């Protein structure tokens, strides 16, 4: 599938228009609903291939992927299957039961991981995931996302020493869609 075909399917399956409050607290007239593209097998398969390739381009010594819960877990699993590299899951907070882990899955301190994410706006969720991974001794230098909304996420991550690479930028996805407006507020 070409990048243009994949972009068109992402927009077709996930673009919602209206008045939305984003995780960052900003308001937007459009929303890219990650669950609408992450639950479509063909889109998920293609995204897993592209995410794993992009991650290995920026981190050739990569040991495993990391996917913040809940949205990026399916993406990390798909990238793992496409590349035969394992992945770990980063919870929003440490669970209070069982193993009481915030980072789930086997890993060893000092391993190089690449964070995968669906849609990045301000970078707040990824910054929290970077902190959680570093707290357990993992090395994080890069993150790869499906869509960068181009609203400061890359800069926020750069301040943490993490470079963001995106498969698509929101401006590219929306350029062919007439009524999608820029975020406001």
How is this structure best described in words?
- The protein is an alpha/beta fold.
- The protein has seven helices and eight strands; from the N terminus they run H-E-E-H-H-E-H-E-E-E-H-E-H-E-H.
- The protein has helices at residues 3-14, 34-38, 41-58, 73-83, 124-135, 153-158, 170-175, and strands at residues 15-21, 27-32, 64-68, 87-90, 103-104, 112-120, 139-148, 163-169.
- The strands form two sheets. Strands 5-4-3-6-7-8 form a six-stranded mixed sheet, sandwiched between helices. Strands 1-2 form a two-stranded antiparallel sheet.
Notable features of this structure?
27% strand; 7 helices; disordered C terminus; six-stranded mixed β-sheet
How is the secondary structure organized here?
Elements lengths: L2 H12 E7 L5 E6 L1 H5 L2 H18 L5 E5 L4 H11 L3 E4 L12 E2 L7 E9 L3 H12 L3 E10 L4 H6 L4 E7 H6 L10
Parallel strand pairs: 3-4, 3-6, 6-7, 7-8
Antiparallel strand pairs: 1-2, 4-5
Helix pairs in contact: 3-4
Give a quick rundown of the structure.
The chain has 185 residues and is of the alpha/beta class. It has helices at 3-14, 34-38, 41-58, 73-83, 124-135, 153-158, 170-175, and strands spanning 15-21, 27-32, 64-68, 87-90, 103-104, 112-120, 139-148, 163-169.
Assembly type: single chain
Number of helices: 7
Beta-strand level of the residues, as a percent range? Answer: 25-35%
In spatial order, strands of the major sheet run 5-4-3-6-7-8
Low-confidence segments, given as residue ranges, are 179-185
Largest sheet: 6 strands, mixed
């Amino acid at each position: 599938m070409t990048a243009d075909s994949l972009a068109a399917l992402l927009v077709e399956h996930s673009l919602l228009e209206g008045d939305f409050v984003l995780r960052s607290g900003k308001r937007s007239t459009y929303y890219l609903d990650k669950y609408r593209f992450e639950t479509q097998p063909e889109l998920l398969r293609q995204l897993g291939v592209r995410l794993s390739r992009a991650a290995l381009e920026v981190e050739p010594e990569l040991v495993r992927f990391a996917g913040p819960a809940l949205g990026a877990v399916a993406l990390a699993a798909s990238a793992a299957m496409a590349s035969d590299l394992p992945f770990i899951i980063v919870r929003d907070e440490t669970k209070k039961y069982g193993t009481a882990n915030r980072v789930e899955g086997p890993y060893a301190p000092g391993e190089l991981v690449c964070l995968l994410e669906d849609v990045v706006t301000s970078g707040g969720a990824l910054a929290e995931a970077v902190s959680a991974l570093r707290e357990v001794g993992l090395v994080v230098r890069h993150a790869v996302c499906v869509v960068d909304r181009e609203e400061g996420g890359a800069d926020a991550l750069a301040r943490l020493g993490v470079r963001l690479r995106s498969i698509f930028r929101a401006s590219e996805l929306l350029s062919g869609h007439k009524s999608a407006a820029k975020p406001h507020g």
